[in-house]
Amino acid sequence: MIRHPERVELACNENPLGPSPRVIAAAQAELSRIHRYPEAGASSLRRSLAEHLRVSEEEVIVGNGASELLELLVRAICTGPQRAVFAEPSFVIYRLACLAHGVPFTEVALDGYVHDLSAMARAVSPGTGLVFIANPNNPTGTYVGRKALGAFLSSVPREVFVVLDEAYAEYADAPDFVSGLELRREHPNAIVVRTFSKIHGLAGLRLGYAVMPRELAESVHRVRAPFTVSSVAHAAGLAALRDREHVERSRALNRSERAFMQAGLSELGLRVVPSQANFLLVDVARPAAAVGEALLAQGVLVRSLPALRTMLRISVGTRPENERCLAALQAVLT
Ligand SMILES: Cc1ncc(COP(=O)(O)O)c(C=O)c1O
Which of 88, 135, 197, 305, when mutated, tests ligand 1's pocket best, judged by the most ligand atoms within 8 Å of its CB? Predict the structure, then answer.
């Protein structure tokens, strides 16, 4: 995508710091070898991820963004008449993947912008193969904590896979936030999906990973094309995992700037949904699409969501970007 240099881009929940310089160096070094196919089975990256996550290599799969993995899970799990269950609104790929593969699904409304896990548990029936839970959720930024998630996993039959989509998990700092990486020890039907697009700042390179039971990983390998992750993405991913400082810097910036934006939006008299992610959902109390267009005219790109009529989703940027966004919003709203 060609981007306007002066535009403030707060629509796609990207890392405003960009990638680590060490990642750029690793990706550039790999360019001289791009006449070769990527390493078979992505073994180096999967091994490195497995060490990092304290799981076995056979349980790790990498993909062309988390999006590819989410779709592959639909294809690998819902091979018969199985249904999928997920929240609405949540990450749009769940619905798109089901539609693309003819998999029936049940959408369960959020309750006060948060996953209604009791209603989702009731929506699980003998025909359910798979449940998606984005934690934290996109587009709301809300999360479900240890107790609710543990209870949900305990209530779901073991043969139903529960995909915990943790694209934003690295930003979550609530004391009771828990990763599926921990829960899957007690609940082997839990699958964790993560991405390099957010905290690692590699959205354009397309790299994601998932941790799942080994037998399921084998089924996924059977339905996928080889080499969907480029050798440059492999090299970048390995370097990104090693640069813990960049991750810490990104997390710290998001924590302070999320609070800054939350306060600034509240000062404008707007209601903000508490967020555990790198974006905020804010009620502008008028049709959000028109506000989004007016902001764009001021050079600030945010996301309006048709399903949430008066709500805008605004990614957390750097301080100058956030200040520009608040100033533009103030100008548009008054
Ligand atoms: C909840 C959620 N899951 C997954 C993704 C996909 O990430 P990727 O860029 O790795 O495909 C996103 C991207 O916005 C997301 O919001």
Answer: 197
Q: At 3, list the tokens.
A: 């981007």
Ligand 1 atom at minimal distance to the Cα of residue 134: 1
Amino acid occupying residue 19:
P
pLDDT digits (tens, 9 = 90+) for 276-322: 999 999 999 999 999 999 999 999 999 998 888 999 999 999 999 99
> Rounded to the nearest whole angstrom, what is the distance from the C-alpha of residue 331 to the centroid of ligand 1?
31
* Candidate from 71, 95, 198, 315 with most ligand 1 atoms within 8 A of CB, to mutate: 198
> Ligand 1 centre from 267 Cα, in Å?
30
Two structure tokens written together for 323: 């200040």
Nearest to 198 by CA among 101, 277, 84: 277
Tell me which H or E stretch contains 172.
none
Which CATH number, 3.40.640.10, 3.10.580.10, 3.90.70.10, 3.40.50.720, labels domain 21-242? 3.40.640.10
Specify whether the backbone of 88 is left (phi greater than 0), alpha (psi in -120 to 50) or beta: beta
Q: Is the CB of 105 under 6 A from ligand 1?
A: no
Can you list the positions of beta strands (E) in 149-207?
A: 161-165, 190-195
Q: Residue 77 has which token pair?
A: 């799990």
Q: What integer pLDDT is reported at residue 80 of this predicted model? A: 87
Q: For the CA atoms of 245, 251, 253, 258, what is the dihedral angle to 10 degrees?
A: 180
Q: Where are the alpha helices (DSSP H) in 224-268?
A: 231-242, 244-267
| Pocket lining: 133 vs ligand 1, CB cutoff 6 Å | no
Q: What is the DSSP letter of 186?
A: T
pTM of the entire predicted model: 0.97
Domain 8-16+245-333 has CATH 3.90.1150.10: yes
Q: Closest Cα partner for 85 from 152, 12, 154, 169?
A: 152
User: Can you give the C-alpha Rg of the chain in angstroms?
Assistant: 20
Which residue lies with its CA nearest to atom 12 of ligand 1? 167
